[in-house]
Structure formats: C-alpha cells, structure tokens
C-alpha cells in the first residue's frame, strides 16, 4: 500500500497540473455519502466519459477513507478501500486523453501550483505513484523513492483486462508424475488458450481431489502445505508471454492441514443431536472466527503472491456459512462483543437474532478476506481480488441468512465479483428464464455489469455431459443483450477439446 512519507521526483505530462487542481475538491467533499457510494458514482461517471468528474468523486471517497482511518487506524476495510481508490485514480487519469502534452517537472515536496495545500500535494503524490506503477505511457523519466515499500514478483502484465473473457482450469488435469509431461501439458494448454482468444485464465491453485472438498496440497511453493507439484509458476509465466492475465482460484476456508488434531479444532462447527461437532455441510472448512485459521489463511495467500507472479486472486466458492454454523469456540467472543450474548442456539428462533447472527457471519467472512488482501497488498499493491458468490446471493437477497453472502457489499469491497451462473445449483426449471433474471439483478446495481464476472459451466453434473456449443451461445446472447461483457467458461478440458476449440473461438 502507498501512504504518506513519500518522496517522489519525476516528469509527468502537463495535465498533471490539472489533476492537482481537481484534487482540491477534497475540501468540499459532501458529508453523508459513503466512500463506497462515491466510488460507484465515479465508475458511472467514468463510463459516461466524464473522467474529470469521476476523479473528483474518487478524491471525495479518499477523504472519507482518511476520516475513517483517523479515528480507527486499524480498520482493514478502510485501508483496503483507500488503496483501491488510489489505483482507480491512476486508471482513470491514465485513460484521460487530456493528459497528453509536454513534459513538466513536478516535485511533490514543493508543488508550485496555486492554490494547493500540502494535504492535496500528498494526495497527488500517492495517486501519481499509482499511475507510475500502472502505466509507463504517462511517464517519460521517473525517480521514485517510496519509503518502506518493496514490490517483488509483480506480474508480467501490468494492466488488468477491463473486460474479462476467460476460461477456468483445474490443474489436476495438467498434473502428471513426470515434470517433463507437465511441461508438455502446459505448452498444449497455453497454445489452446491463445488460439481460443481468451485474455484471462482462472486457475485453481490447489488440489481438488479430496472427497470432502478441502485442499490438502498446493500447486505452488509454500511453507505451510505439501506441494504436489510447482505448476502454477511456469504456467503463469507461459501465459503472460502471450499477454494472458492469470487469476489464481483459492479456497478461503477449505484446507486440510497436515496436523489433524490442530486442524479439527479450527473447523466450522454446528450442533447435531445436542452435540457440537464439525459441520457436515457440502464443503469441509476452517472457521473464519478461529484465530489460528485466520493466521494460516493469511500466510498461505501471502506465500502464493510471493511465489507466483499473478494478476489476481479469487476467493473460492467455499466462502459461506449456513444458518446452522458457526459454533466454533472462537466465535463466542465475537457474539458476546457484538450482541452481548454468551450462548447461541442455531438456527436462531428469534427473527432479529437470526438477522444479527447472519450479519456477523457475513462480516466475519469479509473481515478475513480483508485481512488477506491487506497482507498481500503490502508487497503486491496492484493485486486484484475477486469474491465468488452463489447466484442466490443476487437473485434472492434473503439467502444471506443461510449463505452469509451479500452482493451489493461485495461489489464495494472487492475488485470484482465472480457469480456461479449455474442454474443446476439453484434447481432452476428454465435455464433461459433463470439466467435472464440473474442478469437483470446484476445490471440493476450501479457497478454490477462492470464488476461482475459470470462463471458459466461447461459441464452438466445433472446430465453428466458437456454443455453444447449451441446452448453456450444462447446463454452468451442473454448476457450480451443485458449489457454484460465479463464471463469465464469452465472447467476447460484441453485433452478432450471441451469446449470445442473451433466453436469457442467464436464465443470469445
């Protein structure tokens, strides 16, 4: 993250003076408007071609985050929001053609532009560093000295795709005991992906073969779990050579640690037959309330980011809690602090307590994600984060009580939202009707269409067959008609040619 105590001396285009003047709008930030709302307004203005107004809105959002941090310096969500706002500032300014002109010397320690306060100068310097990191096109010469900031193992592709057209890959398909075979499989997949014309690949970074749905080994070097094979790094480098962005799909909670006794104490718990036991939900998960689990998850994500040059990380579909969970011992301190209760019965019988507990479960999941993002962005400030949600969180807001997922809040907290657009998971009778309802709900949110990525299944678990090219084309027409451009199809099977390469090229 990039904050104060910044020394920077560089040349930018003449339009930077305009940016410094716009920055003074912070002083007049309107009260009563949340930083998230301001960022949503900025995105809408930017899409409408009103870049100057979008920059002003982001400056106001930054002021709101700074105010929050003044009173709560350890607020992880505000810290992340501030960092993301700076990145958005850099993106908007970099895309604005008015900044094309002659070079100007700028020294943020002594800005000679009237009238600009020292506070505004610091704001400008933070955003300028973000610009310099994101777009070399704006910088002719630069001399940057950022105290206490070290950026290592950054991705080869510095610009994240504004529109995602991708495929999903399970690395279990590439794995073979022989690394020579693995390398050949990587080459075959990369050739397929580039021929297909995708600009992003969502890669599952952990094993997927456990019966309980939990990850027991990884496909990247780390200090916490067994490494089945170091496949992620060479795959990412091979795709980056063809300008294909890579997002690692990671469990948030579904991990099996080598130490079973320690692992069992950290699990999500529920009560069955009067006895509190590990939950028997469809995914075995660590509890987001467990302090040991929080430490483990944060460290494994930091290991991933330090060892693989990724563009982004996706929090997987295990980031949920049902209304029968969580009775992990570490959860009661949170219930006591927030609700003043020491005993919890699940599911809650009182409607108000039911909503309160659902909010706590949701907030705890977001807090864990926020802790992970803050830790990773200390060394990798440009890392994008995507939150996976079930479609019910969008189509049926009341599902928050048994999923602990909220679409509107996720749009504000994460760079993107990946929705599992699979009607089979929702027992939908009509695939087309269900998909149209889902797209309508997405575009109804101010930043829904721009920030939501649809994960479209390539295989039907019900019919035990690959979804036809014709059916995929029908679904994509529904998306396009609704104004949705971001989608990922998966899983991809390069060995059996599913989806079929010739047809998939037309889809992408």
Please supply descriptive tags for the structure shown above.
alpha/beta, disordered N terminus, 508 residues, 18 helices, 2 domains, eight-stranded parallel β-barrel, TIM Barrel, three-stranded antiparallel β-sheet
Topology (elements, then pairings):
Layout: E1 6-13, H1 15-23, H2 35-47, H3 51-71, H4 76-94, E2 103-107, H5 118-134, E3 139-146, E4 165-170, H6 179-196, E5 200-204, H7 232-240, E6 245-250, H8 260-265, E7 269-272, E8 275-278, H9 291-307, E9 312-315, H10 331-339, H11 351-379, E10 384-390, H12 392-395, H13 400-403, H14 407-413, E11 416-420, H15 431-443, H16 448-451, E12 452-457, E13 459-460, E14 465-466, H17 469-482, E15 487-490, H18 501-507
Parallel strand pairs: 4-5, 4-15, 5-6, 6-9, 9-10, 10-11, 11-12, 12-15
Antiparallel strand pairs: 1-2, 1-3, 7-8, 13-14
Helix pairs in contact: 2-3, 3-4, 4-5, 4-11, 6-7, 9-11, 15-17
Report the CATH C-level class of the largest domain.
Answer: Alpha Beta
Strand % is 5-15%
Structural class per helix/strand content? Answer: alpha/beta
Low-pLDDT stretches? 1-32, 97-152
Number of helices: 18
Q: How many individual domains?
A: 2
Q: Report the CATH superfamily of the largest domain.
A: Glycosidases
End-to-end Cα distance, whole Å, is 35 Å
Oligomerization category of the chains in this entry? single chain
Helical fraction equals 40-55%
Mean pLDDT: 78
The largest pleated sheet is described as: 8 strands, parallel, barrel
In CATH, the architecture of the largest domain is Alpha-Beta Barrel
Task: Give the overall form.
Answer: globular
Number of distinct beta strands: 15
Going across the biggest sheet, name each strand in turn.
Answer: 4-5-6-9-10-11-12-15
The radius of gyration over CA amounts to: 23 Å
CATH fold label of the largest domain: TIM Barrel
């Amino acid at each position: 993250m990039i904050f104060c105590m910044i020394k920077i001396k560089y040349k930018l285009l003449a339009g930077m003076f305009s940016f410094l003047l716009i920055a003074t709008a912070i002083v007049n930030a309107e009260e009563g408007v949340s930083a998230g709302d301001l960022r949503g307004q900025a995105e809408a203005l930017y899409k409408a071609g009103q870049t100057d107004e979008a920059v002003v809105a982001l400056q106001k959002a930054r002021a709101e985050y700074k105010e929050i941090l003044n009173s709560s310096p350890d607020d992880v969500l505000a810290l992340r929001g501030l960092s993301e706002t700076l990145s958005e500032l850099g993106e908007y300014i970099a895309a604005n053609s008015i900044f094309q002109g002659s070079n100007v010397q700028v020294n943020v320690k002594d800005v000679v532009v009237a009238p600009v306060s020292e506070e505004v100068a610091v704001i400008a310097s933070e955003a300028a560093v973000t610009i310099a990191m994101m777009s070399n096109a704006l910088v002719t010469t630069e001399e940057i000295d950022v105290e206490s900031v070290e950026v290592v193992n950054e991705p080869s592709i510095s610009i994240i795709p504004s529109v995602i057209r991708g495929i999903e890959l399970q690395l279990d398909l590439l794995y073979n005991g022989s690394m020579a075979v693995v390398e050949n499989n990587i080459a075959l997949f990369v050739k397929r992906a580039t021929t297909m014309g995708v600009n992003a690949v969502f890669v599952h970074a952990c094993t997927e073969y456990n019966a309980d749905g939990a990850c027991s080994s990884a496909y990247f070097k780390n200090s916490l779990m067994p490494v089945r094979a170091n496949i992620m790094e060479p795959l990412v480098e091979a795709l980056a050579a063809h300008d294909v962005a890579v997002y690692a799909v990671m469990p948030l909670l579904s991990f099996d640690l080598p130490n079973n006794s320690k692992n069992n104490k950290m699990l999500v718990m529920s009560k069955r037959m009067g006895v509190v036991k590990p939950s028997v939900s469809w995914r075995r998960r660590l509890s987001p309330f467990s302090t040991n689990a929080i430490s483990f998850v944060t460290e494994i994500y930091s290991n991933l980011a330090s060892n693989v040059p990724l563009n982004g990380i996706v929090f997987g579909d295990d980031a949920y809690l049902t209304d029968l969970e969580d009775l992990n011992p570490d959860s009661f301190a949170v219930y006591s602090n927030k609700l003043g209760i020491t005993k919890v019965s699940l599911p809650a019988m009182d409607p108000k307590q039911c909503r309160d507990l659902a909010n706590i479960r949701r907030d705890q999941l977001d807090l864990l994600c926020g802790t992970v993002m803050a830790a990773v962005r200390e060394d990798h400030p440009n890392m994008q984060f995507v939150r996976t949600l079930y479609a019910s969180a969008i189509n049926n807001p009341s599902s928050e009580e048994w999923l602990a997922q909220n679409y509107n809040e996720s749009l504000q907290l994460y760079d993107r939202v990946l929705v599992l657009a699979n009607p089979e998971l929702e027992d939908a009778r009509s695939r087309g009707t269900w998909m149209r309802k889902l797209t309508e709900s997405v575009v109804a949110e101010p930043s829904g269409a721009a920030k939501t990525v649809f994960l479209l299944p390539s295989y039907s678990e019900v019919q035990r067959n690959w979804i036809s090219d014709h059916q995929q084309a029908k679904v994509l027409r529904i998306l396009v008609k609704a104004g949705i451009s971001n989608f990922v199809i998966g899983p991809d099977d390069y060995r059996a040619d599913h989806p079929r390469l010739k047809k998939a090229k037309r889809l992408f």
